[in-house]
Design a protein that fits this description.
16 helices, about 75% helix, Membrane protein, transmembrane helix
């Protein structure tokens, strides 16, 4: 991982990366600005979302205060490491496509700072994960390793969906394997997690398909094209909702059934061609809402994991 720290990158964008790294050192906006930039580079939205979901699941399945705090700490450090790794790995692509909403491309923080933060968070994640127990900790570290592998190369291949699917499927196991007797979660929870992961992957890619193709990122959604990528987002997310409502042995209540109905309507909005044309934000917005509803359903059904 020497390139991660050194700021070197291969290919046609190397000089641009060097230029950005150098200019970042001359355009510092003070320690407060650098701290905010570093936080923004961690992908705080997804990082906090995954952490909150894991924390709530730990609390609702009986992990206790100590176990819940430990789960939150391990998942947060893992997610921060993944977010920082992602921004550092994508630096040359962000420069090539003119992204000005990233702290690294604007020079708010340096590549070395982001890379160091990613590695430090990863180092912290290891003992925090293992403190949950060898089973829960080992599964969590596998999920983090899959996310890093996505950032560092798998995202460019037809198997780009696989790290998302496996890592999301393992999230319920991170929680339940820390319980007494270390039970694996029920199959419906892992299936719903895998479907949610596939849909989240496609949703995340939707706004950037053209830029990704320009810079050589040809994961499965990019290879499918915009319309079929919308299907790849909507169908698994709707399937995840269905599994979450019908899978547990405890009957679903009005809230769960309402959530399933809404996800069906949103899935239709994703798949149907938008009236405002190909550049409409409706499909992407609808997929985000679909993912949020799936996460809410997972939390609502969390007690059934134990």
């Amino acid at each position: 991982m020497n390139w991660l720290i050194s700021g070197r990158s291969d290919g046609a964008y190397a000089q641009a990366v060097h230029t950005t790294a150098a200019s970042a050192t001359t355009r510092r906006s003070g320690s407060g600005g650098r701290l905010l930039g570093l936080l923004a580079a961690s992908h705080p939205g997804p990082s906090l979302t995954v952490t909150v979901v894991a924390t709530v699941l730990a609390a609702t399945t009986g992990r206790g205060l100590g176990g819940t705090v430990l789960t939150a700490s391990a998942v947060l450090t893992g997610q921060l490491s993944v977010g920082w790794c992602n921004d550092r790995a994508d630096l040359h692509r962000d420069i090539a496509t003119g992204r000005r909403d990233k702290p690294l491309t604007t020079g708010t923080v340096t590549p070395r700072t982001v890379a160091t933060a990613a590695l430090c968070a990863l180092v912290l994640c290891v003992p925090l994960s293992l403190a949950m127990g060898p089973a829960a900790g080992g599964v969590h570290l596998v999920a983090v390793a899959l996310a890093w592998s996505y950032n560092l190369g798998i995202k460019r291949t037809p198997l780009s969906w696989l790290p998302y699917a496996v890592a999301f499927a393992l999230l319920p196991a991170v929680v339940t394997l820390g319980l007494p007797n270390h039970p694996w979660p029920p199959g419906w929870a892992m299936a719903a997690g895998a479907l949610l992961g596939i849909g989240a992957h496609a949703s995340n890619v939707l706004p950037d398909i053209e830029d990704d193709l320009t810079t050589g990122v040809r994961g499965l959604p990019q290879r499918l094209g915009a319309h079929r990528a919308r299907l790849m987002a909507a169908v698994p997310l709707l399937a995840a909702s269905t599994v979450l409502v019908l899978g547990p042995s405890t009957p679903a209540g009005p809230l769960e059934w309402t959530g399933l109905a809404v996800t069906g309507a949103l899935a239709a909005a994703v798949v149907l061609p938008p009236r405002s044309g190909a550049r409409s934000r409706l499909p992407f917005t609808a997929t985000l809402l679909l993912a949020v509803l799936d996460v809410a359903l997972l939390v609502l059904r969390g007690a059934a994991l134990a």
